[in-house]
Amino acid sequence: MSNIDELSLSEALLKKAHVVFWDFDGVIKDSVEVKSEGYERLFMSYGEGVAERVRQHHEAHGGISRYEKMPIYLDWAGESASADQVQKFCDQFASLVMQAVIDAPWVPGVREYLLANHIKQRFILVTATPQQEIQQILHALQLTHCFQEVYGAPIPKATAIKSVLQQMQCLSEHAVMVGDTESDFKAATKNHVPFLLRRTPLNQTLQGQYSGPMFNNLNHE
């Protein structure tokens, strides 16, 4: 299938949906690498081996909250995984990456699609980024008005999707989830919502397992 045909199919699926659930990192902003580098920097003082192990785990488990991953990484680093310590490292991680996420490249065509269609369709953001942090990022990017609702950690994506479908009395087949990770795919599948995969270098395994529509970007150029 040509890139043009693939893009047409992706846009057709997007445009027919009444409700569109969007992931953020890797879907709206090409910011996955930024967070990989943030984790690596956060744990580099514990040795390159630990830092690389953390990076690889993060990249293999994209779309999962840092609050779920950080206790694992602290254990590998020989640190306590107490609630206070987890919060301390999550705060340090946020300070390392938030501005870099804001400055990261846009996924081509997605910003334009959001701005052009947020009145015609209902856009919902579902992300593993903590709630307050993602709201600050959206504000900095001047995208807040594009989303009717924003769900960040600790609310699971599947829970957010289920809640929105019920609140909006929207049938699952009239929605779509746009994501780039297995956790996005599972959240959509659990709610019987069609899924649109944004293809990235880090989700090649998922690409091989997934037979539905995929896209690289929404740019016609």
Walk me through this protein's architecture.
The chain is an alpha/beta fold. The protein has 2 domains: 3-30 and 105-215, HAD superfamily/HAD-like (Rossmann fold, 3-Layer(aba) Sandwich); 33-103, Orthogonal Bundle (DNA polymerase, domain 1). It is 52% helix and 13% strand. It has 10 helices and 6 strands; from the N terminus they run αβαααααβαβαβαβαβ. It has helices spanning 3-16, 32-43, 48-60, 66-76, 83-103, 110-117, 131-141, 157-167, 182-190, 204-209; strands at residues 19-22, 122-130, 149-153, 175-179, 195-198, 214-215. A 6-stranded parallel beta sheet has the order 3-2-1-4-5-6, sandwiched between helices. β4, α9 (182-190) and β5 form a beta-alpha-beta unit. The longest helix is centred in the middle third of the chain and has 21 residues, at 83-103. The protein is globular and about 50 Å long. The model has no long low-confidence stretch (mean pLDDT 94).
Pick out the low-confidence regions. Answer: none
Number of continuous helical runs:
10
Fraction in beta strands:
5-15%
Q: Remind me, CATH topology of the largest domain?
A: Rossmann fold
CA-based shape: globular
pLDDT averaged over residues = 94
CA(first)-CA(last) distance:
17 Å
The biggest beta sheet is recorded as: 6 strands, parallel
The SS-based structural class is alpha/beta
Radius of gyration: 17 Å
CATH architecture label of the largest domain: 3-Layer(aba) Sandwich
Strand order of the largest sheet: 3-2-1-4-5-6
